[in-house]
Amino acid sequence: MSLFAILFLSDLWAAPSPGIEEHAASVTQVIFPLINFLIFFYLIKRFLLPMIKAHLRTRREEIVAALGEADESKRNAESMIRDYRARLSRMEEEAKKLREMFRAEGEREKAKLLREAEELAAKVRADADFLAEQELKLARQKVREEIARLAQAAAQKVIQDHLTPADQKRLVEEFLSGVGQQ
Fold first, then answer.
1. What does pTM read for this prediction?
2. Residue 156 and residue 171: Cα distance in Å, rounded?
3. What residue numbers bound the domain in which 52 lies?
4. How many CB atoms lie within 10 A of CB 33?
5. Residue 37: inside a domain, yes or no?
6. Total number of domains constituting the chain
């Protein structure tokens, strides 16, 4: 609605009720309010309207800038979401690769430990066999020595029991002549 239509409607609204006597408006009653209105309208148009326009323009620029920043923030957030999703998918893949790598490393380590354990067991068996053989040789040597000692003791007893002084003299002479010839 235009400003003039509002003014005329306000005049109708402010009209006196129908039961009251009506007088015709005088020229001064119409012209002075009209001049007053035109002055008021001029002051509003000259001073207030530019301030309102400037305020609305800056407000519009602020809103446009805020919308631009919001749009930029939205794009940044969407970009970050895409990056995080890509990282997450890569992390899942990397975790899977790491699990496979650790599993393979564990299998290699297991095989290495089994191989080392088998080598150690073979070495322990070889050492045990060697020690058993050495113990057997030592036991045989001790048995031989014991047999030789017993045989010597038995021979000495037999000789002492059956050797006469004449036999003893003859043995000493044979020994001395054998030593003298050498």
1. 0.35
2. 14
3. 26-168
4. 13
5. yes
6. 1
